[in-house]
Specification:
This protein has about 200 residues and is mostly helical. The protein has a single domain, classed as Endonuclease III, domain 1 (Orthogonal Bundle), CATH 1.10.340. The protein has eleven helices and no strands.
Length: about 200
């Protein structure tokens, strides 16, 4: 527990910047395409690293990737790639940088075909009654299916575990611990959330 005595998920007390992220972002449902794309990109960069590393650098990532406007990122070329590889404020992994640019192009295709990223992604929201207790798994049938479909459409760095972490953070799943004071608030937010069509 933190000094305010509120019971949180265990991970929320493991780094100084986690409580604010835990209390104000993690698990609230999101239907904004740019925010969804940002989170997919940050999950890409997190692969093999800690979320704290990425969260600490998030503002740098936003500046480097045009606030994750996928219309702009899709146009990145050799000049922008070189700049990103020299940007000490982000994770300078060429495969991941190229994956983000590729995924921006795939995002444009998805919006053209599906209407929005949100409409497509929220089709994979799990039935809460089928999920095991919170904090007990790292994938589910829906994260596996979402991963498979995105890969089929040419997306990169979108494995089932990465997609499950994405679903947890973007509110498709309420994975706050049973004792966590945020669990009920997320439940209420999910109940009031209008799923995109």
């Amino acid at each position: 527990m933190l000094p305010d005595d509120k019971k949180r998920c265990a991970w929320a007390s493991s780094a100084p910047d986690f409580p604010e992220y835990h209390d104000n972002e993690w698990g609230f449902p999101v239907d904004d395409d740019q925010r969804l794309f940002e989170k997919l990109c940050l999950e890409t960069f997190q692969s093999g690293l800690s979320w704290r590393t990425i969260l600490t650098k998030r503002e740098n990532f936003r500046l480097a990737f045009q606030q994750f406007d996928f219309h702009k990122v899709a146009l990145f070329g050799e000049k922008e790639i070189a700049e990103l590889l020299n940007n000490q404020g982000i994770v300078r992994n060429k495969r991941k940088i190229l994956a983000v640019i590729n995924n921006a192009k795939r995002a444009l295709e998805m919006v053209d075909k599906e209407g929005s990223l949100a409409a497509f992604i929220w089709r994979y929201e799990p039935d809460e009654n089928t999920l095991p207790p919170p904090e007990t798994q790292t994938t589910c049938a829906e994260s596996i299916a979402l991963s498979k479909e995105l890969k089929k459409r040419g997306w990169q760095f979108v494995g089932p575990t990465t997609m499950y972490a994405f679903m947890q953070s973007m509110g498709l799943i309420n994975d706050h611990a049973e004792h966590c004071f945020m669990r009920e608030e997320i439940d209420q937010a999910r109940k009031g959330f209008v799923r995109p069509l």
